[in-house]
Amino acid sequence: MNRLRDILLVEDNPNDVELTMEALGEHNLANKVVVAHDGEEALDYLYRRSRFAKRDTRHPAFILLDIKLPKLSGLEVLQIIRADEKLKSIPVVMLTSSRQESDLIRSYQLGVNAYVVKPVAFADFISAVKEIGAFWAILNELPPS
Fold it and tell me: Considering the entire predicted model, what is its pTM?
């Protein structure tokens, strides 16, 4: 069975979670979206720990990762992912409100696949997330887990 891979959304802002879920839903993506509310929870998902211990063993189709997160920042999570041979091929898209050049540069130094600043306008945010979802979940070819 060729089951679709999850999308991992790592976001602590409930409003941004809701908007992102709505945008991905509008694109009718069949992928399940799993939400992690902080950096530690994201790693729990990736390493199949805690509440994610029994999840599917396949990697997510891609990770939407905020930079400013509780417990571990998005940059710290990205660094851990890229340092792990089993995780480093997972596509990671920073979806963040940070326009700081240092965050952008550091993200690419750590190996992010894309850096998207969250648009402020509702319609623009929805459009951006829909395009991200379409590319990474539908068009992008993934390596085997």
Answer: 0.90
